[in-house]
Design brief:
Largest sheet of chain B: none
Mean pLDDT of chain B: 80
Distance between the termini of chain C: 76 Å
Distance between the termini of chain B: 49 Å
Number of helices of chain C: 22
Structural class of chain C: mainly alpha
Shape of chain C: globular
Oligomer: heterotrimer
Radius of gyration of chain C: 25 Å
Number of domains of chain B: 1
Helix content of chain C: 55-70%
Order of helices and strands of chain B: HHHH
CATH class of chain C: Mainly Alpha
Radius of gyration of chain B: 21 Å
Number of strands of chain C: 2
Chains: A mainly alpha, B mainly alpha, C mainly alpha
Helix content of chain B: 55-70%
Strand content of chain C: under 5%
Chain lengths: 204, 123, 659
């Protein structure tokens, strides 16, 4: 496939879309996000059905503390903003600013994962393992799947950081950063629903 | 779904496609106001839901509906502001599958819940 | 002897796997494995195998790989079927016992759906979709290879269960609590979950790949309403795949967590709910029915139009009904478990939505018939399958409507009536469609036709064998014979019908043998097809030489109408007659990569470790997977150049370059 020549003069559409092959990958990534969305929808369905099936274990209201959850929400919403800024500066060809916002995103994401793991460990120490009840199984797997997505995202971001260092902002690295941002915002959306439907609804 | 554009895209043997006409579809601002406002609104929506729940502001069913609507608003915000939803090369092909995905996702959750209520009249 | 050796033998080869049939299979595997090894060694073909096949990213070669796997799996699933029918041929005979019967019907269903029908469909997709839309490849060639290797290693994982560790035995649906560790210890069910998870990831990627290929890579001028009908059905199949496989992944994953890590999703105690698995499984399972049948509809639409010498009747209605089926397919899943007792309103809703699907399907049937009406029909093998398909599928659909009537379903449920119904649609619809496509596109894939005379014999064996097998099963179902029973006593009046059914199964088996001989014979003795258009075809794939060169199109055609190649022929300007040397440009093609194979191998090793809960092996496999992904992320060298001169020489050699 040929790459349309996008010189300085007609530098109007972002490189990651100007290159046809890279733009295909963006479309493909959207499709991937939809499959992931249905994965999370299935897990939400499981959680919705199992929410009241607490067996001998704790109820959502007894288990959850909103403190760490609010912290996690803040970290993730802010990281969603920072990766948005990274993409904004990517389109301005400002590599230094991209580094700054991108690294901030990784740090915030790591903060989120650490808080969540700490939260999970607390629950397990209270004896609330996923063996105890259908509700806890649904909870740990839904929230844990999201958490492992974030963890995977951090590892992806690290490999991407190396590529940016080595190659700068080419059409390929730009497309990779753009798809990473799609992934990251998508996880933010999923988290908002977890926050709403798992934690807030648990506190009714 | 436009096809004149499709011709431009795939005909690599023809002259280099002029892509400039697509440029207005892509975001370009001198200062990232959109991102900043998006961030502020996302915080507002989150804390609105949080405060409503902490204060038990309304009846549970209504409250659930309201916070889900707030979450949907948040999702729309992320998609529209941060995910550059409408940007694409040619027709925005992601929109139709995305609408279908939302429909199926919510249908799947709602209908599964309905089925698993086991409201058995006869069995 | 070190102490771990008896442990290994006991774990890998428990008493279950030391039955005569398993030992026979062991022997067969060893002999054929050794045969392949010595063949490759003797003819020094290892390098050829690696560079031409294991690392290929060319969609046409991946199609061949899929096809070979699918035919091999058709053999395995078919042998399973014959074992089942033999066990039921007469009352109280048990050539294979109850335990083994359970294993065999489980692998029969699993293999036929996931490892025969799916790869067969992907073989056809890969073979013709890029050619039909005038594209040089699929959107993501390397991911396409990843899909294949995930499928292949998933299939391998399921197949070795028979000889190593023990087969799954809870049916192709794998319902809990029967699959829970408390009731089903041993590796069998873990094999089932793990292999389907791995293959399912591959399938999802294929869905994404073809969706993007079709929406983004069509030739200039090919609008949605100028796409061949096979492309429409592929598009809808891909959309079904990307939304249907995730619930399966979740259902399988949660079962595996229950079995291996002690969570409480589908357990009977601790607030688990086995029926939730059933719900998730059929959220996938019903769209899956349309995933396997829509491509067959597409094949028939192409075949009927080509061999009637007419444009497809009611093209727009066909396209819309395909889309309608796609939508409705998501809304009918509860009809697989009406008897669960979800309540009258739920059952009524899903009964109605099920019946609704008959409308778009009926539209299609009428359109095929009207396409033939007044056409000059050529009775090729592909067309014979089409003709057999129409009445068979109509009856299968009609019994489906009977099953959708809820009170009646309480009678039919899990009886042989159901078994006959779904074989009626899966064989009469999917398998006939795939066979039709095989005979139709074989010359495009390999450059020569399959022998039509032998193909006709195979066809009659399949068609007659089908009816002889499954008509009695409808009656058996009405007489109360339930599904999955391994034997039955004399005196129920089931005796004669079972004998007839078993005879039919062996007639179909004979059909398979003729098919294999047909392939062998045609490979040896059939003449090369030099035109590239042996059927007087209508769509763009026939505009190319057979077999198709690596770059597909030397120059991308411009499409002005439906049946693009037919129109070109009418106007006398085909690709072959109009290519000039200056039209040919240098191309960039995807470069071969070993990454997909290594990735699949990593999944296989990791999956094997998970099945036996040998964590070091599982982690090792996982590290291979991560390593391949990281390698791929840093590999920017995934394209190669093909100089214009090479293309010119190839085209000139085919006589397709004008001076």
């Amino acid at each position: 496939m040929s790459t349309p020549v996008v010189g300085e003069s007609q530098h109007q559409i972002p490189l990651e879309f100007a290159n046809e092959e890279e733009s295909l990958k963006i479309t493909g990534f959207w499709m991937f996000l939809m499959t992931d969305m249905i994965i999370f929808a299935s897990l939400f369905a499981v959680f919705a059905v199992y929410r009241s099936r607490v067996a001998a274990g704790p109820t959502p209201d007894q288990l959850f503390h909103l403190g760490p959850v609010i912290l996690e929400t803040l970290l993730l919403l802010t990281s969603s903003f920072t990766i948005g800024m990274a993409v904004y500066y990517m389109r301005k060809d400002n590599l230094a600013a991209v580094y700054g916002w991108f690294i901030a995103t990784i740090v915030l994401g790591a903060g989120f994962v650490i808080t969540e793991v700490h939260d999970f460990v607390t629950y397990v120490h209270l004896g609330a393992t996923w063996h105890v009840s259908g509700f806890l199984s649904g909870f740990f797997v839904l929230v844990g799947t999201h958490g492992s997505h974030v963890t995977f995202g951090i590892m992806w971001a690290l490999t991407l950081l190396f590529q940016l260092r080595r190659r700068g902002l080419t059409d390929i690295t730009r497309r990779k950063l753009f798809t990473f941002s799609l992934y990251w915002h998508f996880l933010d959306i999923v988290w908002v629903f977890i926050f709403t439907f798992v934690y807030l609804y648990g506190k009714f | 779904m436009s096809d004149s554009l499709q011709q431009h895209e795939s005909s690599e043997e023809s002259m280099e496609p002029g892509l400039e006409f697509l440029a207005p579809k892509f975001e370009s601002e001198a200062f990232p106001w959109t991102q900043i406002m998006g961030y502020v609104f996302s915080l507002v929506l989150t804390f609105a839901a949080l405060l409503l729940v902490i204060n038990h502001a309304m009846a549970p069913t209504l409250l659930l509906a309201v916070i889900i609507v707030l979450a949907l608003g948040q999702a729309g915000l992320q998609l529209g502001v941060f995910m550059h939803l409408r940007e694409s090369r040619g027709p925005a092909w992601q929109l139709l599958p995305l609408a279908l995905a939302f429909f199926i996702a919510f249908g799947l959750i709602g209908v599964s819940y309905w089925i698993m209520l086991f409201k058995t009249g006869v069995s | 002897m070190p102490s771990f050796v008896p442990y290994l033998i006991h774990t890998l080869f428990p008493p279950d796997t030391r039955q005569p049939t398993e030992l026979g299979a062991d022997f067969m595997i060893l002999v054929s494995g050794a045969g392949i090894f010595f063949y490759l060694q003797h003819f020094k073909k290892w390098k050829w195998l690696w560079t031409e096949w294991l690392t290929t990213v060319d969609h046409k070669k991946i199609a061949v790989l899929y096809l070979v796997s699918a035919v091999a799996m058709l053999f395995r699933g078919g042998v399973d079927a014959l074992m089942l029918r033999t066990n039921l041929a007469l009352p109280n005979i048990q050539p294979i016992g109850a335990v083994e019967y359970n294993e065999v019907f489980t692998t029969h269903g699993t293999i036929m759906i996931f490892f025969m029908a799916m790869p067969f469909i992907f073989a056809l997709f890969n073979a013709v979709v890029p050619l039909m839309i005038g594209s040089r490849d699929v959107a993501f060639p390397r991911l396409n290879a990843v899909s294949f290797w995930l499928f292949a290693f998933g299939a391998l994982l399921l197949n070795i269960s028979f000889v190593i560790g023990g087969s799954p035995n809870a049916g192709w649906t794998g319902y809990p609590p029967l699959t829970e560790i408390a009731f089903n210890p041993g590796p069998g069910e873990s094999y089932y979950f793990m292999s389907l998870l791995i293959a399912g990831i591959g399938t999802t990627i294929t869905g994404i790949n073809f969706l993007v290929t079709i929406i983004r890579m069509r030739a200039p001028g090919m609008t949605l309403m100028r796409m061949p009908m096979f492309i429409w059905t592929t598009l809808c199949t891909a959309a079904l795949i990307i939304f249907a496989f995730p619930p399966l992944t979740v259902a399988l994953g949660l079962s595996l967590l229950d079995r291996t890590f002690g969570s409480s999703f589908f357990t009977l105690a601790h607030g688990g709910m086995p029926m939730m698995y059933v719900n998730l499984f059929w959220l996938f399972g019903h769209p899956e029915v349309y995933i396997v049948v829509l491509p067959a509809f597409g094949v028939f639409s192409e075949v009927v139009s080509t061999f009637s010498g007419k444009r497809l009747f009611g093209y727009t209605a066909m396209a819309l009904s395909t889309v309608a089926i796609m939508f409705l397919a998501y809304g009918t899943w509860v009809h697989h478990f009406f008897t669960m007792g979800a309540g009258p309103s739920v059952n009524a809703f899903f009964g109605l939505s099920t019946m609704l699907i008959a409308i778009p399907t009926g539209i299609k049937i009428f359109n095929w018939i009207f396409t033939m009406w007044g056409g000059r029909i050529r009775m090729t093998v592909a067309m014979l399958y089409q003709l057999a398909f129409i009445p068979t599928f109509v009856i299968g659909g009609a019994t489906g409507i009977m099953l959708a009537v809820i009170p009646a379903d309480y009678q039919f449920h899990n009886s042989y009536f159901l078994v006959a119904h779904f074989h009626n649609v899966l064989i009469g619809g999917t398998l006939f469609g795939l066979m039709s496509g095989l005979y139709y596109w074989w010359p495009k894939m390999f450059g020569y036709k399959l022998n039509e005379r032998q193909g006709t014999w195979a066809f009659w064996c399949f068609a007659i064998g089908f009816w002889v097998t499954f008509t009695p099963q409808y009656l058996l179902g009405l007489e109360g014979m339930t599904r999955r029973m391994y034997t039955y006593p004399l005196g129920f009046g089931w005796h004669e019908l079972n004998v007839i059914s078993t005879i039919g199964a062996f007639i179909m088996g004979a059909g398979f043998l003729i098919l294999v001989y047909n392939i062998y014979y045609s490979l040896r003795f059939q003449d090369k097809d030099l035109t590239g258009d042996p059927w007087d075809g209508r769509t763009l794939e026939w505009a190319l030489p057979s077999p198709v060169p690596e770059y597909n199109f030397a120059r991308i055609p411009v499409v002005n109408d439906l049946d693009a190649f037919w129109v070109m022929k009418q106007q006398g300007v085909t690709l072959a007659s109009s290519l000039r040397a200056e039209d040919v440009r240098e191309l960039e093609l995807p470069r071969n990569s070993g990454m997909p194979f290594i990735l699949g191998l990593g999944f296989f090793i990791g999956g094997f470790g998970m099945v036996f809960e040998w964590w070091p092996i599982a982690i090792f496999g996982g590290l291979i997977v991560v390593g391949s992904l990281v390698f791929s992320a840093f590999d920017y060298n995934d394209r190669k150049h093909m100089p214009a001169e090479v293309i010119r020489q190839t085209e000139a050699g085919l006589g397709r370059l004008q001076a």
